Amino acid sequence: MKDFFKCQECVDLLTDYLEGSLEVEVKRRLDEHLAGCAPCINFVRTFEKSQDLTNRLREQQVNVPREVQERVKSFLKVELVALSSERQK
Ligand SMILES: [Zn+2]
């Protein structure tokens, strides 16, 4: 079966995915991709953890600058792309 999404596209959708704001059809396809793609699943877990950490810091009145959040996000993207291209070797 052909993947509906490339990993990179999934990463771009993940923020919406975790917020639950994706369209039902898009979410379904993303779920299908995630079901067969270990690097993406790992990415979701790592991403959830980083979101969790950010939320916890916020609760403790620690201000995490937007720039840092964005940097974490792009770091994770690079990691995922590296993982998925390694898998295709
Ligand atoms: Zn993937």
Q: What's the layout of helices and strands?
A:
Layout: H1 7-19, H2 24-35, H3 38-59, H4 66-87
Bound molecules: zinc ion (ZN).
Essential attributes:
mainly alpha, 89 residues, binds zinc ion, 0% strand, 78% helix
Description:
- With about 90 residues, the protein is mainly α.
- It has one domain (about 5-85).
- It has helices spanning about 5-20, 25-35, 40-60, 65-85.
- Zinc ion (ZN) binds next to helix 1 and helix 3.
Summarize the structure.
The protein is an all-alpha fold and 89 residues long. The chain has helices at residues 7-19, 24-35, 38-59, 66-87. The chain has one domain (7-87).
Could you say how many structural domains there are in total?
A: 1
- Strand tally: 0
User: Uncertain segments of ≥5 residues (pLDDT<50)?
Assistant: none
Backbone shape: globular
Order of helices and strands: HHHH
> Which ligands are bound?
zinc ion
Rounded Rg:
14 Å
Cα distance spanning the termini: 19 Å
Secondary-structure-based class equals: mainly alpha
Strand content: under 5%
Strand count, sense and closure of the main sheet?
Answer: none
